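Per your request, structure below.
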């Protein structure tokens, strides 16, 4: 057992410690010869002469070679733009690369020795050149480069001796923002092209291309993903393991020549009650994703309809069988209207069907319309006003859904948990039979629900065959359908592909709800993390706020990543480092960083640049530095930081305030409005403070003084222009020359980011506490209701905002505010947890009692509570930079009588247990060796602390009894007031 030490002794020991100790060595995994490897790869880029850049293609590359004996080592390095699948001797080995900006591509490395053999061997790479806009891929030139080193010596590299062909079963995919739908046609498979001995003499020689089209290559900076077969895939209903039910035969009498993407899917609906003429209306919102361009739209009506866009006639039809199918471009705020007539004089045979797809994703359906049978105002086709219109009802006459033809057979699989997975399937089929897999997050009322994209489509040749999908999908449920012909499924596997986190942390308490909340929070982040902190199942984008506030704060308390030679990197920071670097690479001429990356959203998108995310990038860089001591990376990012901050400083007005667009978050009354806003200035103030700290860390002292001076000036301007003495609160901002009333967001972020002087803190907190639970608003991409939200003192309504809410409640440091955190978790997350057990993950938005309100049931915004349950309830956290090697252990139990588990820290796992009986708290803990800790027990009776059977002499600090500990195991008890 380590001896107890006094607080004075602990502080003296800290003073003797070096000011900065880099922890970079804990997770540096780059090969020693990475620079040489990168240069050789850069000089060895090849492509297909048949597939020009800018035209989507799947191109297969082959290289066969002989080995006299199996090698001891066979280091294989490769990179492809846009993505690749690798087979060695017919076995799928790898897929990649890690998502990248073409300014800094990263190559993958793996040891092929286990897959090579004496004699003839083959390396085959399928490269998908994807020139469309995508959430993970940037438009660029196509190319492949590869290098094989046998027992330390270069053996081969990509060159014109490689054969290539775009003519395999992998056909061009439709546009998609997230997972890319596979269109695989087994009828055109040229034979066993992934195996040795395949005759590729009809294929062409690869053509060298200029590797300097890309920036300098680097070794992959994060570990390769972990791939594992999901072991608990079961058939629904009945929950039978699929392996016990194979083979499964599906067939349909439908003989239509099904073409990808498989058709429109939607519902028939009509206005409530009988009505001869009905007016339908919706106001389009692209939700900030630019998904309204080039949409495929289908409208059917029993009997006659005319479709309008902003009052302009688009289509008309009175043929219920064919309706109208065509293209439509829509933008935020567009008014889509339909005037429909039931020629059977208003009986219940009437019905309307609307389905709009973009990139294979359903973006608009009949249920998105409202209707009225009362003649609307004359401007109803152009006005965004929806009053007088009401929700539709399903029709009783028409089929509930349009989709695959009647007679189609299908089954639904439960994967056992939410996964980022791809299928590999063995089957027997008739020529031209079509199998489709559609992926869903949830299973509601006996049906799969929340589906993004049309999934995987396979057209079979005759006989026995197999296929593997080229992209993975985030899903809990998979619907497998036979769209045409006959298919017998002989083997079915789902391969989960994710970042190789190991779950080390845990949480268990006297409240099972909080236990489930912690588990679902961590699960949400684990299954959306593959080659990045992909924020959610739908988009899989990198966003700075999402990565730093939701994802990293969750994984840092719960998981470890793989290190060198079997070691673990606890609180693994590498995905955070990646998102910081990707953001920096996205920087544009004015210094701004893009809102999401690597991607090509375009300036017309409202999330192309998010100003407060730019500020949060600096904050996240400081978070990364505190966790690692990695000065090298700070210096790498320094030019981008200076350029970013210079751009912001040029936007400071004569009032001394930043003029920029507000955002965080969708419930902010000023989101998307350019003004001198309180929240954007709060973020900017923190960015200045953090810039100064980082500048001092790398010796940029003049910059440090400049940023400190600018932060001080902003602090003064903020308090001079925003403070409202009569309200005892800060105004939301200044819009032009209009001074706005206070908002909950303004108070919260001013408090969090240190803009509130001591004498104003109590008043600001009171205003915040009085209003943050008010009903909130929501807007995405635009903000037409800002004035009403401010006038109504709109509250906090998004899970992500509780990152700041919980921090502020805990900073209030009162038993009541500690309990408030518990109460908010139980009330706000109640239905998200209870109603989404089918998903096992959490949502972007809060869920109502009837199940409504949810958006994306696997989104990192919902995971916010996990960090606080571990760091504040279990009470283990780091307040100083990791180089100080010190932990704070301070439980805030609220009304819990038991809280135990393991909190992961940069120093290793810290198991703790807190048990309260009557007025006594018993505890155990284990502090990693070499680490100091400050134990702070709230609301304890002085002089009642006993540790390891010995009375201790803690100091009293406010509501706390405080004592310093060193590494070791401890058991203790204390009497509570």
């Amino acid at each position: 057992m380590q001896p107890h030490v006094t607080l004075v002794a602990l502080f003296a020991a800290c003073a003797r410690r070096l000011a900065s100790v880099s922890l970079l060595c804990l997770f540096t995994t780059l090969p020693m010869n990475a620079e040489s490897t990168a240069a050789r790869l850069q000089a060895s880029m090849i492509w297909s002469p048949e597939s020009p850049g800018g035209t989507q293609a799947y191109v297969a590359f082959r290289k066969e070679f002989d080995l006299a004996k199996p090698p001891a080592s066979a280091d294989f390095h490769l990179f492809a733009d846009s993505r690749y699948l690798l087979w060695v001797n017919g076995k799928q080995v790898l897929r990649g690369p890690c998502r990248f900006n073409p300014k800094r591509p990263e190559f993958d490395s793996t040891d092929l020795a286990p897959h090579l053999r004496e004699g003839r061997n083959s390396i085959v790479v399928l490269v998908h050149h994807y020139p469309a806009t995508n959430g993970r891929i940037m438009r660029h030139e196509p190319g492949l480069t590869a290098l094989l080193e046998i027992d330390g010596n270069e053996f081969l590299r990509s060159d014109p001796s490689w054969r290539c062909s775009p003519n395999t079963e992998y056909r061009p995919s439709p546009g998609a923002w997230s997972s890319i739908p596979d269109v695989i046609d087994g009828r055109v498979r040229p034979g066993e092209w992934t195996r040795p001995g395949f005759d590729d003499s009809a294929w062409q020689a690869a053509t060298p291309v200029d590797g300097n089209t890309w920036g300098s290559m680097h070794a992959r900076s994060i570990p390769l993903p972990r791939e594992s077969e999901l072991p608990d895939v079961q058939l629904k209903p009945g929950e039978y393991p699929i392996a016990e039910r194979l083979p499964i035969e599906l067939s349909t009498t439908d003989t239509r020549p099904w073409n990808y993407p498989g058709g429109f899917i939607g519902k028939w609906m009509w206005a409530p009650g009988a009505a001869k003429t009905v007016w339908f209306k919706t106001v389009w919102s692209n939700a900030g994703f630019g998904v309204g361009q080039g949409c495929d739209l289908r409208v059917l009506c029993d009997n006659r309809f005319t479709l309008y866009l902003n009052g302009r006639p688009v289509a008309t039809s009175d043929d219920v069988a064919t309706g109208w199918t065509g293209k439509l471009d829509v933008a935020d705020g567009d008014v889509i209207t339909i005037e429909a007539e039931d020629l059977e004089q208003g009986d219940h045979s009437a019905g309307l069907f609307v389905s709009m797809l973009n990139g294979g994703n359903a973006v608009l359906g009949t249920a998105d319309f409202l209707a009225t049978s009362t003649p609307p105002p004359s401007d109803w086709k152009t006005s965004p006003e929806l009053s007088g219109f009401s929700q539709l009802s399903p029709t009783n006459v028409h089929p509930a859904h349009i989709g695959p033809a009647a007679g189609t057979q299908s089954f639904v699989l439960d994967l056992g948990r939410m996964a980022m997975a791809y299928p590999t399937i063995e089957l027997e089929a008739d020529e031209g039979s079509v199998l489709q897999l559609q992926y869903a997050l949830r299973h509601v009322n006996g049906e799969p629900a929340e589906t993004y994209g049309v999934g995987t489509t396979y057209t079979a040749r005759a006989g026995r065959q197999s296929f593997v999908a080229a992209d993975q999908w985030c899903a809990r449920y998979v619907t497998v359908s036979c769209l045409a012909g006959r298919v017998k499924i002989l083997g079915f596997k789902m391969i989960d592909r994710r970042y190789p986190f190991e779950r080390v942390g845990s949480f268990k308490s006297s409240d099972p709800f909080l236990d489930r909340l912690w588990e679902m929070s961590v699960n949400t982040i684990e299954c959306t993390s593959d080659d990045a902190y992909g924020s959610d199942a739908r988009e899989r984008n990198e966003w700075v706020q999402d990565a730093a506030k939701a994802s990293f704060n969750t994984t840092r308390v719960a998981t470890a990543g793989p290190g060198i030679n079997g070691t673990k990197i606890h609180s693994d920071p590498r995905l955070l480092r990646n998102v910081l670097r990707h953001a920096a690479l996205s920087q544009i001429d004015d210094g701004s960083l893009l809102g999401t990356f690597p991607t090509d959203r375009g300036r017309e998108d409202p999330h192309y640049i998010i100003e407060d995310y730019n500020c949060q990038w600096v904050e996240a860089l400081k978070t990364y530095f505190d966790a690692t001591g990695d000065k090298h990376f700070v210096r790498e990012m320094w030019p981008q930081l200076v350029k970013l901050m210079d751009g912001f400083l040029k936007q400071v007005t004569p009032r001394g305030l930043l003029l920029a667009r507000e955002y965080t978050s969708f419930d902010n009354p000023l989101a998307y409005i350019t003004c001198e806003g309180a929240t954007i200035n709060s973020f900017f103030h923190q960015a200045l403070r953090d810039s100064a700290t980082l500048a001092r860390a790398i010796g940029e002292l003049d910059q440090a003084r400049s940023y400190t001076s600018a932060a001080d000036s902003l602090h003064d301007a903020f308090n001079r222009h925003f403070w409202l003495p009569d309200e005892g609160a800060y105004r939301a901002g200044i819009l032009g020359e209009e001074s706005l009333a206070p908002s909950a967001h303004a108070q919260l972020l001013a408090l969090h980011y240190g803009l509130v002087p001591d004498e104003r803190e109590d008043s600001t907190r009171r205003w915040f506490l009085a209003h943050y639970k008010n009903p909130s608003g929501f807007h995405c991409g635009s903000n037409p209701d800002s004035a009403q939200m401010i006038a109504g003192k709109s509250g906090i309504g998004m899970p992500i905002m509780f990152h700041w809410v919980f921090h502020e409640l805990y900073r209030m440091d009162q038993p009541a505010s500690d309990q408030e955190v518990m109460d908010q978790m139980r009330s706000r997350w109640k239905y998200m947890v209870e109603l989404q057990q089918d998903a096992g993950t959490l949502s972007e938005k809060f869920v109502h009692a009837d199940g409504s309100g949810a958006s994306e049931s696997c989104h990192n915004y919902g995971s916010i509570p996990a960090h606080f349950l571990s760091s504040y309830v279990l009470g283990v956290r780091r307040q100083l930079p990791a180089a100080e090697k010190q932990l704070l252990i301070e439980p805030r139990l609220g009304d819990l009588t038991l809280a135990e588990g393991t909190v992961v820290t940069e120093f290793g796992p810290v198991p703790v247990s807190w048990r309260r009986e009557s007025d006594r708290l018993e505890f155990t803990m284990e502090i990693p060796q070499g680490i100091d800790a400050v134990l702070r027990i709230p609301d304890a009776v002085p002089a009642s602390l006993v540790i390891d059977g010995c009375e201790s002499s803690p100091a009293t600090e406010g509501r706390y009894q405080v004592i310093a500990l060193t590494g070791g195991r401890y058991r203790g008890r204390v009497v509570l007031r």
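The radius of gyration is 30 Å.

Regards,
D.
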